[in-house]
Amino acid sequence: xxxxxxxxxxxxxxxxxxxxxxxxxxxxxxxxxxxxxxxxxxxxxxxxxxxxxxxxxxxxxxxxxxxxxxxxxxxxxxxxxxxxxxxxxxxxxxxxxxxxxxxxxxxxxxxxxxxxxxxxxxxxxxxxxxxxxxxxxxxxxxxxxxxxxxxxxxxxxxxxxxxxxxxxxxxxxxxxxxxxxxxxxxxxxxxxxxxxxxxxxxxxxxxxxxxxxxxxxxxxxxxxxxxxxxxxxxxxxxxxxxxxxxxxxxxxxxxxxxxxxxxxxxxxxxxxxxxxxxxxxxxxxxxxxxxxxxxxxxxxxxxxxxxxxxxxxxxxxxxxxxxxxxxxxxxxxxxxxxxxxxxxxxxxxxxxxxxxxxxxxxxxxxxxxxxxxxxxxxxxxxxxxxxxxxxxxxxxxxxxxxxxxxxxxxxxxxxxxxxxxxxxxxxxxx
Amino acid sequence: xxxxxxxxxxxxxxxxxxxxxxxxxxxxxxxxxxxxxxxxxxxxxxxxxxxxxxxxxxxxxxxxxxxxxxxxxxxxxxxxxxxxxxxxxxxxxxxxxxxxxxxxxxxxxxxxxxxxxxxxxxxxxxxxxxxxxxxxxxxxxxxxxxxxxxxxxxxxxxxxxxxxxxxxxxxxxxxxxxxxxxxxxxxxxxxxxxxxxxxxxxxxxxxxxxxxxxxxxxxxxxxxxxxxxxxxxxxxxxxxxxxxxxxxxxxxxxxxxxxxxxxxxxxxxxxxxxxxxxxxxxxxxxxxxxxxxxxxxxxxxxxxxxxxxxxxxxxxxxxxxxxxxxxxxxxxxxxxxxxxxxxxxxxxxxxxxxxxxxxxxxxxxxxxxxxxxxxxxxxxxxxxxxxxxxxxxxxxxxxxxxxxxxxxxxxxxxxxxxxxxxxxxxxxxxxxxxxxxxxxxxxxx
Lengths: 430, 445
Description:
The complex is a heterodimer of chains A (430) and B (445). Chain A is an alpha/beta fold and 430 residues long. Chain A is built from 22 helices and twelve strands. In chain A, strands 1, 2, 3, 6, 7, 8, 9, 10, 11 and 12 form a ten-stranded mixed beta sheet that branches. Residues 22-29 of chain A have low confidence and may be disordered. Chain B is mostly helical and 445 residues long. Helices cover 79% and strands 1% of the residues of chain B. Chain B starts with a helix and ends in an 11-residue tail after the last helix. The interface between A and B is large, with 45 and 44 residues.
């Protein structure tokens, strides 16, 4: 009896261990065809578009490769790549947001692409915009991903509102004073109840841009110290907060809490609205129906600066088919694909040759003045490029909240934010 | 005869078993480490190491079983075996999915680990950083404790009140019970989305109601906050105290000193009440006249919003109270009726004591639950604004799955474990004084 029990248990243990080892076994299949897994953060219609592009173009030139596309929410992309790497089942290729490029590269998730670029005569990295390559392509001297699209912030404006009050449209000559002057004229209590119904300007979330325009920065040049505690930084932030709390040309948190500032702009309640080029591609076409709009450069402070971001295509270190993955990355960043993306979603191509050709500039859909975006790229600046940037962004974002609500001065919150960001940078170097 | 053959057999088996132990615990691990050092290929070796680990766990279990049943008769041992076989599915699950990860997290809490690169042992540095150098940790603790301090008593009394109401004999009571219980079974995310609408400062229902009531309360508050009113109230209290002192001095119900004390204290107490009254209603007037709360958008109002929201979940505690209420024998109330007890007395002398085990249970679950708020803050505020809703578990999640500092997060988890353990122990210790079990004989120990 006892022996029988033991045998039974042993067999059970054997079965369990076999089952466990079976989990990691490759599924049998045709060895000639390589199936690549690619992760993106797109909607179903975009996935259909990928499928079509693969079938019409990629599979014809690369008959031995098939691609499986998986979509992950943008916010979860970084976790997905990390956890799948830890679990030994990484995708082969992934679209990586500029926000998470540096953490991904620093955590050693991405394959060093320098050898691939060197051994591939048909690929020319110099065709890509330098701020894009330096911002979310290169880390510590090596290329870890190829920028796929560029997303730069500029100032959208509601043409109908400007026409109504006979004010000339914004242009490249504007500076902060001019912005404030016009914003005041456009902030109007239309029904006379003592509360504003229309506002001149919304700064959106790009508080960094004002600091750059004022000659300050979030981190010092080598990313070792937070310099928000310097006057150039906190004066700029104070100015941005004053737009809302002192000059009342921008909706307060309570005004915007209901539907959000973006929706207020698309509803026609806002004269000028700062947002990324992505908004013109995927938000405004559906939501702006009642007025005409165009885009102008961000007004300059002491200097010109804008917030630049985007996405890139990288090969995951944990993938097994690196050679085929490189072919896929090349395809996704090819001029033909960039032209498709520009047409479909107004994504600014990361290749100069494509961006400055008619493919993007002469698209029919508004805004008309797309050259503004292209011209802004040279002075675009990415978010701080440090490994702990997700955590640091949370800390700094939380710290400056009281200033945006008007309950504390920008100087006080910036000094505290700088101290806490520096503590974090110190802790990261432990 | 039979016994002897078995002994012989088991002696042979014992030797085989020892060889198996030796192979599993000594030879195989050494071989695997050697192989790893030579090839450096971790994935294939993991395929060998994992089954070996499972097998080793089985061997350990066998040893434990043999040790614990060493003095049993054959039949008892057989019964024990069958018992263990019955709980085996649970046991496997517990060991591999609860105990194993728990032990692993103890080790990880003393490491620096980003789940990609190998853990680096750092001793107690994670605990030190959390307890002494991390302002967000302190903030998370503050937020969680403040929340618990308000939400726990509110929830306990709220659930009890609802349960008392729903314990009445009214037609259609089961419908009301269902309605009050529904929120407790709704998924957390749906609830959070719903409350985000309720707390919307412009169009949310809460601010619509407050906005309608405020203008009516404002004149009342402004009249009450006037100086003459405040002084009048203070004077009335002072006069009452003086009268009380005089009464004691005249009637000699207590010693003369007490009477004198009342007389001396009359003016300071009256003054304090005047000051408190005017500041209290003054503040009320200011807040009534001011803008409506931004709730989740305002660092000062975000946590109160969460506390208000916690009342939404009283249904869970209510159902348990209800069961407790139904379990109170009716003859106790009948006896009290005959003795002429009024409802308040019946509640204090019968309902509360008889319900104390239920209250105790709800208190323990409430303590644990209020330390573990996560979903609502994750969905509604992500810890903001200005860390106002950075609950402990949310911060732990951020550290673990957004910043990938697993070691730090594991250390935080263990700190929380000890905090909850301490609180629960305190509740348990105190329970001897206030929890009454029917049939229990209270006496000197």
